[in-house]
Design a protein that fits this description.
The protein is α/β, with parallel strands linked by helices and about 230 residues long. The protein has one domain: Alanine racemase (TIM Barrel, Alpha-Beta Barrel), CATH 3.20.20.10. The chain is about 35% helix and about 15% strand. Strands 7-6-5-4-3-2-1-8 form an eight-stranded parallel beta sheet. α4 links the parallel β4 and β5. It is globular and about 45 Å long. It starts with a helix and ends in a 9-residue tail after the last helix. The chain binds pyridoxal-5'-phosphate.
């Protein structure tokens, strides 16, 4: 099933790239494996997937204890500062930076390990009460504020668009995120030159690609529905 799903998703990604005049290699598929067992991850690996997304620190730690192959693990979920210490050397990118305390903790922990962490700023484009992330108006000042932290590499912006049956209705948010990135880049803030847009999930990744996504985060479309009633 995972192989067929991946072929389907890959085909859609190719079509969205063609439609928007983009090259397929501008877009990276992140396979979101949260709640899914290691056997599912191994199945995706057998199909050539090397980039995985998880939303809980504990789950990334458990899975990377078992799976020792060189993969890229992305922390895509809300992150508490007290868990950051587990991520250097485990996650290659954090998609959910939305407050100074968290940024300062990433700085501190990465300084200890003498590494630079790729980070994205999470933006709540639709201003939903239920979601984390900065409102679009707050992002520029926040980027300025954390741009001086030497162990953070601000690679770009991330958004989780509203849940919808109609992907087109999220186009405005994806377009908005791209424009926000371009506008911040045009300010030439020292050390800030963002090249990454993490946007689009199972329901709307094609539209996100048409609007410039460089990472799409697809879970259900690859691994099937998640079951939260039992432990992965
Ligand atoms: C779960 C999750 C996804 C994947 O969602 P699907 O709709 O299953 O593709 C993407 N991004 C984040 C931040 C998530 O938590």
């Amino acid at each position: 099933m995972i192989r067929e799903n991946l072929e389907f998703v890959e085909n859609n990604i190719k079509k969205a790239c063609e439609k928007s005049g983009r090259s397929r290699d501008e877009v990276t598929l992140i396979a979101v494996s949260k709640t899914k067992p290691v056997s599912d991850i191994r199945e995706a690996m057998a199909c050539g997937i090397t980039v995985f997304g998880e939303n809980k620190v504990q789950e990334i730690r458990e899975k990377t204890e078992i799976i020792k192959e060189p993969l890229s693990w992305h922390m895509i979920g809300h992150l508490q500062a007290n868990k950051v210490k587990y991520l250097p050397g485990v996650a290659c990118m954090i998609h959910s930076v939305d407050n100074k305390k968290l940024a300062d903790e990433i700085e501190k922990q990465c300084a200890k390990h003498d590494i630079k962490m790729d980070v994205l700023i999470e933006v709540n484009m639709a201003k939903e009460d239920t979601k984390f992330g900065l409102s679009p108006e707050e992002v520029t000042d926040f980027v300025r504020e954390i741009s001086t932290l030497p162990h953070l590499n601000i690679r770009g912006l991330m958004t989780i668009a509203p849940y919808t049956e109609n992907a087109e209705s999220n186009r405005v948010y994806f377009k908005g995120l791209r424009e926000l990135k371009d506008s911040i880049n045009s300010l030439n803030i020292p050390g800030v030159n963002m090249d990454t847009l993490s946007m689009g999930m199972t329901g709307d990744y094609e539209v996100a690609i048409e609007e410039g996504a460089t990472f799409v985060r697809v879970g259900t479309g690859i691994f099937g529905e998640r079951d939260y009633s039992k432990k992965a």
